[in-house]
Q: What sequence folds into this?
């Protein structure tokens, strides 16, 4: 009898507990309790202000693209075919066969209209050695282009077309860019037609890439591909901040590491070529080397402040000014220099024939030397 009563009691308790669990889960308000799920999910409060977008929509770059795109052009180049001089040799033809007539070479790139007069900024490697250059505007118009001047040391070139009512891009101040700024890359990748990609400024002042003699690249993750060279890198106001030049790639396509020449450099080259037909830079005749921490300690100057001179050209401008091997140049015309790239840029900015002060540190202390720079000779173009 007791065993049967205990069994009935146990079954009753089990049914009641099951009913309570079902009600507590599905209808907690019947028990005046909050749902179980809300009581176990932690909520993290934002640690800073939340940026709200008007209307709750994602930001659009259509205004910047609409403003800048008309001034970005496609550039088609062609180079006349050149036959192999050995093609007529019977032995050459015996081993390699009849090669047939050589085919003309075609190239593809982009450019940016920067003046109502028809001046176009592009890369030197886009139009280098081209026999014919054709510019195609975004509105479909075409025109043959004339090379006004080139600057292989920055990989920039200036073209000119003769068309009316040209769209012109606004030149921005690339020195105001900071890492994280939004940018758009506009060009003609792979010849598919004008394309706009977006990204951010990933880094500034990139040097020692082995691309140009004078390097001060903007790095971006906006997609840049073959055919984008010479195209525009613009900010979200549609202002030109750089000329797309190169990418880091193992496959030939974009890997999120692209480089653009800043407008601060492009503006200087543009003005010099339009005014003088070429870019004239200063030169003092020294062999510089970055200052290591050990050498900096030896000379008693902060690391990263200055460039040590390992060689001085005999009877060159620096030698005549009194610069000697072992000197550490810390300033050029009042502009501090911390590495070889900064020294090259500072010296290049000097006007040939006009004296300029050099800040020099030696073992016996610091001094100022006056140097009269010469004209920088054209250096061989770096392999691309």
A:
């Amino acid at each position: 009898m007791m065993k049967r009563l205990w069994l009935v009691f146990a079954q009753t308790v089990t049914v009641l507990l099951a009913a309570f669990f079902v009600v507590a889960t599905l209808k907690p308000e019947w028990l005046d309790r909050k749902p179980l799920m809300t009581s176990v999910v932690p909520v993290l409060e934002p640690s800073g202000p939340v940026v709200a977008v008007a209307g709750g929509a994602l930001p659009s770059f259509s205004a910047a693209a609409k403003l800048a795109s008309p001034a970005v052009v496609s550039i088609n180049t062609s180079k006349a075919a050149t036959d192999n001089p050995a093609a007529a040799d019977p032995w050459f033809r015996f081993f390699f066969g009849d090669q047939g007539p050589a085919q003309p070479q075609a190239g593809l790139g982009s450019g940016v209209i920067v003046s109502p007069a028809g001046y176009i900024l592009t890369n030197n490697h886009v139009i280098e050695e081209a026999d014919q250059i054709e510019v195609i505007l975004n509105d479909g118009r075409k025109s043959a282009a004339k090379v006004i001047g080139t600057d292989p040391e920055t990989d920039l070139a200036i073209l000119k077309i003769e068309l009316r009512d040209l769209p012109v891009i606004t030149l921005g101040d690339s020195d105001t860019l900071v890492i994280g700024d939004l940018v758009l890359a506009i060009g003609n990748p792979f010849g598919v037609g004008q394309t706009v990609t977006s990204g951010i400024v990933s880094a500034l002042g990139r040097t020692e890439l082995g691309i140009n003699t004078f390097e001060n690249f903007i790095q971006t993750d906006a997609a840049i591909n073959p055919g984008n060279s010479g195209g525009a890198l613009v900010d979200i106001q549609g202002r030109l901040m750089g000329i797309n030049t190169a990418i880091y790639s193992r496959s030939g396509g974009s890997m999120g590491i692209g480089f653009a020449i800043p407008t601060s450099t492009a503006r200087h080259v543009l003005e010099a070529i339009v005014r003088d037909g070429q870019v004239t830079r200063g030169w003092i005749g020294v062999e510089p080397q970055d200052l290591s921490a050990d050498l900096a300690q030896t000379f008693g100057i902060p690391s990263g402040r200055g460039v040590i001179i390992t060689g001085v050209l005999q009877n060159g401008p620096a030698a005549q000014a009194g610069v000697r091997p072992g000197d550490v140049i810390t300033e050029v015309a009042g502009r501090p220099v911390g590495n070889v790239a900064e020294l090259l840029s500072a010296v290049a900015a000097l006007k040939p024939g006009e004296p300029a002060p050099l800040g020099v540190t030696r073992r016996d202390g610091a001094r100022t030397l006056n140097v009269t720079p010469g004209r920088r000779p054209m250096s061989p173009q770096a392999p691309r």
User: Anything to note?
Assistant: The chain has a mean pLDDT of 80. The first helix runs from residue 2 to 26.
